[in-house]
Amino acid sequence: MAAPPCSSLILLPLTTLLSALLLLPAARAQSAPAPAPSGPINITAILEKAGQYTTFIRFLNETQAGNQINNQVNNSHDGMTVFAPTDNAFNNLPSGTLNNLSDQQHVQLVLYHICPKFYSLESLLSVSNPVRTQASGQDGGVFGLNFTGQGNQVNVSTGIVEVPLYNALRKDFPLAVYQVDKVLLPEEFYKAKAPAASPPAADGSGSPAGDGGAKAPSTGNPGNGSGRMSVGLGLVSGIWLLCMALLS
């Protein structure tokens, strides 16, 4: 029996080797572990990755608003929307703007940049104004934002400030984060307060309390002067009668 040619002996191992190489990626894919699920959403991490939001991050931490955002977007079905002012936006504020705010207004300012619902840019074009924010006043009134625009351009207005939205740091549900190049100052901070009414007088007469009101001038004793006049007239009458009696 004739021996197989040498070429056949060489091709056989090459065929086996090629088959093994072709099957190797499939075997690796089957044995590779599944990718780990992404972690919970963190607003601070999003802003830190984008850069230029140091001041806003500090305010989110000081007011605990950052924790509120993280809790809601990771545990609710409504989502949230954040309008993030850049560091330049804070630097361009008029001198003393932030220092003149009370502690309560500092919190209101941060919450005014947060909406308790997820909004895409498309939905902001058709939303009913004003849009509710997380900020509210002492009377319970909610601070709102107004949105206008056309095409892909969306503008946000507070009544004091208007700025376009053009850069989405995050746009997927449940959290949308949009860059704003101006700090959104609530109109409620600038509304003039009505002067307080003066308290009514204690006696209801309009005169200052404590003075007892205006007193009528004293008329004195009506009998003192008239009595002396009557005595004088009586004496004159008596002398006249005596003279008439002597002459008669």
Automatic annotation (TrEMBL):
GO CC terms in record: plasma membrane; side of membrane
Q: Where is this region: Disordered?
A: 196-225
Name its cellular compartments.
Answer: Cell membrane
Q: What is its main location?
A: membrane
Per the record, membrane topology reads:
Lipid-anchor; GPI-anchor
Say which family it is in: Belongs to the fasciclin-like AGP family.
What's the protein here called? Fasciclin-like arabinogalactan protein 9
Q: Where is the FAS1 domain?
A: 40-184
Which organism is the protein's source? Sesamum alatum
| A Pfam family that the UniProt record links to this protein | Fasciclin
User: InterPro entries given for it?
Assistant: FAS1_dom_sf, FAS1_domain, FLA_A
Instruction: Report the SMART domains cross-referenced here.
Output: FAS1 (SM00554)
Cite a single GO BP annotation.
Answer: plant-type secondary cell wall biogenesis
**Keyword annotations:** Cell membrane, Glycoprotein, GPI-anchor, Lipoprotein, Membrane, Proteoglycan, Signal
As for what it does, the entry says: May be a cell surface adhesion protein.
Bias-annotated ranges (Low complexity): 196-206
Question: So which residues are the signal peptide here?
Answer: 1-29
